[in-house]
Structures are given as structure tokens and as C-alpha cells.
From TrEMBL:
Its cofactor is FAD. One of its GO terms (molecular function) is FAD binding. SUPFAM superfamilies: FAD-binding/transporter-associated domain-like (SSF56176). Belongs to the oxygen-dependent FAD-linked oxidoreductase family. Residues 40-210 form the FAD-binding PCMH-type domain. It comes from Amycolatopsis suaedae. Keywords: FAD, Flavoprotein, Oxidoreductase. PROSITE patterns: FAD_PCMH (PS51387), OX2_COVAL_FAD (PS00862). This is FAD-binding oxidoreductase. It comes from the Bacteria.
Length: 461
């Protein structure tokens, strides 16, 4: 249930902003609230559909003056709004969707509502590419400030490493241009600390001179899971930084929308993105092709603007939760546990992914940011749909897998953790020193803790 907001406050918002203001039960509220993630909706008492930065500034000012918490949403991929008490405001940023390319500087100015496919298409016209992720449907700004682990991470690092500036409205209602020169601590914190420090209305990011990839994926039958995982893990030990890859184990439902060869089966999907020549790519993937029969094999030359086809992730809203662990290695016990969870008809169907890190993702950028645990070699992610699935059972299965994979304690990738989190779980995404610094920046810029509906970093005690 949403927490109610005083009608006088709603009226004040309507007078102060150019965009529409929605209250529960009124026309437009459901559409403004709707996002990709159907399992963890925000529960606001009022929504402002901002038309520009001035709307955001006015809305935040009123929220701060009336004791409301503030959340923000563009596409809602993977959001984890958590719980708040008292009245709350949601700022819908999807109308802030402008994208401008500066080919001379190799940069893009990206509004808070823009999705990666917009940036991909416009940048491609100039022979450039953003450090986008596996899904082109994701909101570019939310992805980036959460870290942004993309398809070329091992070559170029995280998307957050390539932010030049941020337009940010802080809790005092100030619209700031945040750069390393103007606000170094805030610039460090937002890039990796997400929405804890204000509302990002736009960002300026570097583009890279990439127009094509050798990439795609291969599906193997589920009975090859252990062989695929062990072969892929051994293969990753020797590939150059120009290769970024992952493995996904996917239980496909037995429904007409799924290709007939996939229906009701658990398959293993090996994904590769290589920025080098296609002939070299063919040689690199030969050990993977030798694993066994393939149901599909899409590896080949493709334009970078079509890179979303590598993972081919769903683009329709659905309810799911997911957790992560950043790992120094993937043990035999973890491989066996993954195989045990991936039998057809399992009580808790799990999509389990391993992503290869290191390379550029393991190095600090020239301008440091808050992205945590760069020493990890692999990211383990487990996801489950919630339609008709017991949430307690899902949580038990997920936590059990993470305990096997990281017996010394879980270190999370918060940008890929798709559920509500406790403060201690958020703390696991950073070193102790970084978390303390994040809390200090929070204290400086949001001492009243206005921005709580996220992976929450509270002000320092």
C-alpha cells in the first residue's frame, strides 16, 4: 500500500512543476509507476513525471520541506526500493530521454530517461559506442551510476569509469554540475554508489571507437552443464582482455512463446564479446565449440549496435528477484551445486549466470570511483521468477548457493542484485573504507536521508 500524502502537498507540487503529478487512484498513476521489474514496486504517495531538471529540483525541494522520502525511476530494471515509512515521492524521469553525441570529443550527453538502445544507435552513426550492458532496454543512467558491468568490461572497465560529469539535484534542492574538479567526493560517490545522493537528471559519458564485435552465443543441452562450466572456466584463464564472456544456465518454460527446441528444457548459454578480428575470434572460441553438440551457434561478426542479441534478454516486464556474489574463483563445489539446482522441473527454477571479470574491470580508472571489489575474477548471479513461486523458498535456494560459492562471506555486486537489501548487505558491496567514505558523503549532502528507496547507504552515525 502506498503511504498517503497531504493533499496540500500534492497541490503544491502541481503548482511547482510543469509535468503531471499523479496520486494513487487517479488517472496516469499506474502508468507512471509501471516499470520493468514487477516484483519490487515503489509504493509512493505521489508521483511527479518530470519534464526537465527544474521539475526535479522543485519536487525535491518540496519533498525535503515536508518530510517525504524521494525515489526515482526510469525503466525500473532491477530496482530494489526497499521499505520506507511515512509519505514518499517518486520522480518518474522517463521523459528526460534526450541523447546528444559530440563526435569530436567522443562523448554523449544522456538524459535520465534514455535507454541504451538510443545511445547505441546515435553513437553508431559516428563510429562510436557506449559501454552499454547486455540489455539495450535498460535505462542508461541508472545502470551507469550503479557501476555498469558491460559487454566490453574486460577491455574498458565499468561504465562508471567513463563518466565525465553528472547533472544532479541534491537534497537541498540544488541543481549541481558534478565533476571531479567541482565536487570530487560527490563525483566519486555517485559513480558506484547509485541514487543515494540525489537525482541524476543527465550524465556526460565517454564513447569508445568500436563499431563491431565478434560475438554471439551457443546453447548446449543441460546434461553438459558441468562440462561447459569447467571448460569455460579453464578457457577464461587464458583469454586476452579484449574478450568479455559469460555463461548462463536458463530453465525455459514449456509455452508456445519459447522456441520448440527449448521448451521445458534447461540449457546452457555461453556468450562471447570480442573486439578483435573475426578470424582471431574463431580461433579463440574453438575450445568452446569442441565441448559438444550445440543447439544454437550465433558466433560471428556483428555491428555493436546489435550487441543486445548476444545475451538476448527478455524485454517485457516480469517479476523476479536476484542476488550476487563476487568471487576470486569458482570452485568445484560451486559447479556441482549449480548443476544440482539446474535439473528440469526444480521446485525453484533458477537462472544462474557467471560473468568473467578482471582485465579493465579489475583496474582502478584514472579518476577513482566507488565501484567495489575490483579484485574479483567472477560474478555469480542467481535469478528466479516469482510468478507462482514461494518467495521464502527462493530466498533459501539463493542464499544456499551463495554460501557454497563464498563460504568466507558474500561480497555483492549491488548493480546486479535485484531485490531489497539490508544496510549490512549493501555494506558487502564495498570495502570498509569505501563504505565509510560513502556514508560521510551521504552525511554531507543528504543528512536527513531523503533518498532512501534504493540499495540504501545511511548517513554516518
Amino acid at each position: 500500500m502506498s503511504t498517503s500524502v497531504n493533499p496540500d502537498v500534492t497541490s503544491a507540487l502541481a503548482r511547482a512543476v510543469a509535468g503531471p503529478v499523479h496520486s494513487p487512484g487517479t488517472g496516469g498513476f499506474a502508468d507512471a509507476l509501471a516499470g520493468f521489474q514487477a516484483a519490487a514496486r515503489h509504493e509512493p504517495g505521489v508521483i511527479v513525471s518530470a519534464t526537465g531538471a527544474e521539475d526535479v529540483r522543485a519536487a525535491v525541494t518540496i519533498a525535503a520541506g515536508t518530510g517525504m522520502t524521494v525515489g526515482m525511476q526510469s525503466t525500473g530494471h532491477g530496482q530494489a526500493p526497499g521499505t520506507t515509512s511515512g509519505p514518499s515521492l517518486l520522480i518518474d524521469t522517463r521523459q528526460l530521454s534526450g541523447v546528444r553525441i559530440d563526435p569530436g570529443r567522443r562523448t554523449a550527453h544522456v538524459g535520465a530517461g534514455a535507454r541504451w538502445h538510443q545511445v547505441l544507435d546515435l553513437a553508431a552513426e559516428h563510429g562510436l559506442a557506449p559501454l552499454s550492458g547486455s540489455s539495450p532496454h535498460v535505462g542508461a543512467v541508472g545502470y551507469t551510476v550503479a557501476g555498469g558491468l558491460g559487454l566490453m568490461a574486460r577491455r574498458y572497465g565499468y561504465a562508471a569509469d567513463h563518466v565525465r560529469g553528472l547533472d544532479l539535484v541534491t537534497a537541498d534542492g540544488t541543481a549541481r554540475r558534478v565533476t571531479v574538479d567541482r565536487d570530487p567526493d560527490l563525483f566519486w560517490a555517485v559513480r558506484g554508489g547509485g541514487g543515494n545522493f540525489g537525482v541524476v537528471t543527465a550524465m556526460e559519458i565517454d564513447l569508445v571507437p568500436v563499431t563491431r564485435l565478434y560475438g554471439g552465443g551457443m546453447h548446449f543441452a543441460g546434461d553438459l552443464i558441468p562440462r561447459v562450466l569447467r571448460t569455460w572456466l579453464g578457457w577464461t584463464a587464458g583469454v586476452p582482455d579484449t574478450v568479455t564472456s559469460s555463461v548462463g544456465i536458463v530453465p525455459f518454460p514449456d509455452i508456445p512463446a519459447v522456441p520448440e527446441a527449448f521448451r521445458g528444457r534447461v540449457l546452457v548459454h555461453v556468450r562471447v564479446a570480442f573486439t578483435g578480428p573475426a578470424a582471431e575470434g574463431e580461433q579463440l572460441v574453438a575450445p568452446l565449440r569442441a565441448i559438444g553438440p550445440r543447439l544454437t551457434d550465433t558466433l560471428g561478426e556483428l555491428p555493436y549496435r546489435a550487441s543486445g542479441s548476444i545475451h538476448a534478454e527478455p524485454d517485457f516486464p516480469h517479476a523476479y528477484v536476484g542476488d550476487t556474489a563476487l568471487l576470486p574463483e569458482v570452485t568445484d563445489e560451486t559447479v556441482d551445486r549449480i548443476a544440482d539446482l539446474s535439473v528440469p522441473g526444480a521446485p525453484v527454477p533458477c537462472v544462474i549466470q557467471l560473468r568473467h571479470l578482471g582485465g579493465g574491470a579489475g583496474r582502478q580508472p584514472d579518476v577513482a570511483n566507488a565501484v567495489g571489489h575490483r579484485d574479483a575474477s567472477y560474478l555469480l548471479q542467481v535469478l528466479s521468477g516469482l510468478d507462482g513461486t514461494d518467495q521464502a523458498a527462493v530466498a533459501d535456494v539463493h542464499s544456499g548457493l551463495l554460501a557454497t560459492a563464498a563460504p568466507g562471506g558474500v561480497r555483492r555486486s549491488l548493480g546486479m542484485t535485484f531485490r531489497a537489501t539490508t544496510v549490512d548487505e549493501v555494506r558487502s558491496g564495498y570495502s570498509d573504507e569505501s563504505f565509510a567514505r560513502l556514508a560521510a558523503v551521504k552525511t554531507a549532502y543528504d543528512p536527513a536521508d531523503l533518498f532512501r528507496p534504493n540499495h540504501h547507504i545511511p548517513p554516518a552515525a
